[in-house]
Amino acid sequence: MSVTNRYREAWEGFWRAAPAEPGAVFWDAEPALTAGPHLALFEPQLADPALPLVDLGCGNGTQTRFLAGRFPRVVGADLSAAALDHARRADPAGQAVYRQLDAAEKSEAQALHAELGDSNVYMRGVLHQCESEDRQSLVDGIATLVGERGRAFLVELSGAAKPVLTGLASGPDGPPPKLAPVFRHGIAPADVSDDAVPEFLRSAGLAVLASGELPLATTEYRPDGVRVELPSRWLLAGREV
Predict the structure, then answer these.
(1) What does the alpha-carbon distance between residue 44 and residue 34 come to, in Å, rounded to a whole number?
(2) Disulfide-capable partner of 82 in 15, 154, 190, 195 (CB 3.0 to 4.6 Å)?
(3) Which GO terms describe its biological process (predicted)?
């Protein structure tokens, strides 16, 4: 099952219009605040750190390039060709490789697994932005990439993030500048209950091996100068040991 055309076109439009400057996109916080803390959680629990790492939903590749300095082979994968254009331009040294991938399409996930073998997967804030009918297919694709030996580390907004986003969007001047394009392109975060993500994983044949909560940093600031952080939950999943 491929993702809907509306969803694909929304992301292409978003990334074609997105500035190239670091930090210009709402969730494009520096790795020291994002992939760095996540790496500290999942790297010690990887069954095989030498496996390829797939940064799924890599966007413009900010986190991918950081991860490429920590693992022997890193692949940044994204649905959007325009996002991957940003990623490649920002990585002239080729620290990572970048692939267009619809992970909800079974054949595409199988093809990448056939090329890489079992892989570890890092995915940050993608599932809650998916169309509801695509979520299980996406997690099934993650299970395909993980295979028998890999691990998946997923970070998703928790239910407590909704009032924070609603408050930002409903200010007297409307959404702040970096959040406004997300709504304008029709990719506003949707509701995914905290209990749904473990169920998606279990339905895909993966066990939740560890989980916790951690604020997800954004690049936006409140009027008082405090950085906007969104409540999130992280889960580490893999085949039952």
Answers:
(1) 17
(2) 15
(3) methylation
Q: State both tokens at 77.
A: 């994968």
Q: Are 201 and 208 in contact (CB under 8 A)?
A: yes
- Enter the pTM of the model: 0.95
Per-residue pLDDT tens over the stretch 195-223: 999 999 999 999 999 999 999 999 999 88
Task: Write the pLDDT tens digit of every residue in 132-177.
Answer: 889 999 999 999 999 999 999 999 999 899 888 888 888 787 888 8
Instruction: Count CB neighbours of 153 within 10 A.
Output: 25
DSSP string, 95-143: SSEEEE--TTSHHHHHHHHHHH-S-EEEEES-GGGS-GGGHHHHHHHHH
Dist. CA 124–CA 165, nearest whole Å:
17
Which own/partner contact pairs does 16-19 have at CB distance under 8 Å and 24+ positions apart? 16/82, 17/181, 17/185, 18/60, 18/82, 18/86, 18/181
Cα–chain-centroid distance for residue 5?
19
How is residue 102 written in tokens?
């619809």
Q: Cα–Cα distance between 103 and 129 in angstroms, integer? A: 14
Report the run of H or E that residue 163 belongs to, with start and end. helix 161-169
CA 94, 60, 143 angle in degrees (round to 5)?
90
The length of the chain is: 241
Six token digits for residue 22: 């670091």
